[in-house]
Amino acid sequence: MRYAVARVVIIGAGLAGLAAATRLKREGLTCLIFEKENRIGGLCRTERKNGFLFDYTGHLLHFRNDIFKSLIFSFKEPVIESKKRNAWIFSHGIFTRYPFQANLYGLPADIVIDCIYEYSRRHFIPCTESINNFNQWTDAYFGSGIARHFLIPYNTKLYRRDPSELTPDCAGRFIPDSDLKLLLRGALCDNKENLGYNSSFYYPSKGGIMAIAENLAKGIPVNTGEKVVKINIGSKKLLTSKGREVNYSKIISTQPVNELIESCEDEIDRIRDCARNLRYVSVFNINLGITGNITDKHWIYVPEEKFIFHRIGFNHNFSSNMAPQGFSSIYIEISYDPLTGIDKKSAIEESVDNLLVMKIISSREQVVLVHTIDIPYAYVIFDHKRKECLQTVRDYLWGKDIYTAGRFGSWDYFSMEDSFMDGWNVAEEKVINNRN
After folding, report:
1. Residue 255 counted as domain residue
2. Nearest Cα residue to 208 out of 95, 358, 330, 316
């Protein structure tokens, strides 16, 4: 057995872990980083197949924080290109612009009337009842029409449960707002105004989204293919899958917090029970190489249950280097409950059938490549147990000098920037500002 001593151990070399390491490095502090996969990046990875580049579904850059933005643009290569969002919704056999609540134009008249009428009722007679779940939230802010025709069916597909089981804060800033004037304009004419946090985005000119992680990892040694399998909190020792025993002072963990708790050897049954109550959904990501240039759209939301996927996107429109010349690429997202799994072969066949129905492709012969990626941890579920259970788990860990960060470390709906800044801030607040 090999032995090591580290003041700080970082578990996971995705964006949050790399951010923590970068922040520590700026202060001249060293750390040991363990990444269970054979390469860095976490969900910020890209795979190459026969000239096609496929990300782990759609990963795009949105800048709200100057630290993250300045760091990303400090790298000379690749060029980070700005894109104006071209996002759509497919329902009732037609394409309408995203977001739904500002783009009713083209939908059947009875649906348009239903959405406007119910939204107007909420506009002039605001909800005075308490809002305790996502169903009630959508009805209170958008009216039952918009909720019924898009928000409820889409989120039911995404989270694989009735939205009444979700808390109102599962929406956050990721659902664009609307107002009556905007709603009416978007019902009477083709409204090309982009709304929401992702109305524009940035993307690397080459290399896929993995280029971001590769740049961040430059000069930072990472022990890839080495998983932290046991942590003895009392003695502050951990053991890795390669038989390395490490004495640590502090840990910054970006792995799913429920798995982190399972690796702890101490008698913490109450904490384990809380961690096991944290819910999530997985995503089966089907990537297709397609002959010809099939569309200029970036992505499409698909709320109807008769289609297997909840969203599809087109990598070749993020960057021309994502597919060989004369070809296009499609990424397909199918969420599923990790407890029940998914029939992957049937999912591929049904997805191609659905693309034909939507007229995204005209024949099966256009599909020249199929590459699948299974993402066990994809989306956090904001159910009614999440807040209390997460607080209990994190309070315990943080009290033992184990700090969690990132989407599944913080168990939150984080963007790429959110995950990065979470790791950065934890390193700053819990290590740099608390040096003994």
Report:
1. yes
2. 316
CATH number of the domain at 365, please: 3.90.660.20
Tokens of 305: 């249950």
409 lies in some domain: yes
What's the rounded Cα separation, in Å, for the pair 34 and 16?
13
Structural domain range at position 21? 2-45+207-278+384-434
The residue type of 418 is: D
- Does pLDDT of 198 surpass 70? no
**Phi then psi dihedrals of residue 113, to 5 deg:** -65, -45
Q: What domain count does the chain have? A: 3
Residue 217 pLDDT level (bands cut at 50, 70, 90)? very high
Residues 256 and 389 in one domain: yes
**Domain annotation covers residue 77:** no
234 lies in the same domain as 272: yes
Cα angle vertex 22, ends 245, 261, to 5°?
Answer: 45
Predicted TM-score (pTM) of the model is: 0.95
Residues 129 and 111 placed together within one structural domain of the fold: yes
